Amino acid sequence: MTIVLNESEVEFSAIRAQGAGGQNVNKVSNAIHLRFDIKASSLPEEIKTRLLEMRDQRISSDGVVVIKAQKHRSLERNRDDGLVRLRELIALAAAVQVPRRSTKPTRSAQRKRVESKVRRGQVKLLRGRVSE
What we know:
37% of the residues lie in helices and 14% in strands. It is α+β, with helices and mostly antiparallel strands. The protein has a domain at 7-94: 2-Layer Sandwich (Double Stranded RNA Binding Domain). It has a three-stranded antiparallel sheet with strand order 1-2-3, covered by helices on one side. Helix 1 crosses helix 2. The protein is elongated and about 85 Å long.
């Protein structure tokens, strides 16, 4: 299933980046705050519900994804990085996990396990003190 992310639904705002950057860090706003409203988006309903149920610190309680991108020195590269991270988050929500089917070990596997434990215990008994 291919999911198309409409970029007009994503809101970008340029902010000043944190960290090292010399004199440039105080003058230029190179970091990006990306905001994406899940409820108002054109994503399929099932993906919206999975996104809203995710325990991710980037998703606020009112259903807005906020991503801060500041890895790169240029505004455009940070914008692209933020979009890539948003797409990864949506792809993670789109992946449906197969439910785990419980299994039971075979009788021979249970017997082998117990025999190996007994053998190991006997080896440890031989390590004890020698009685005269």
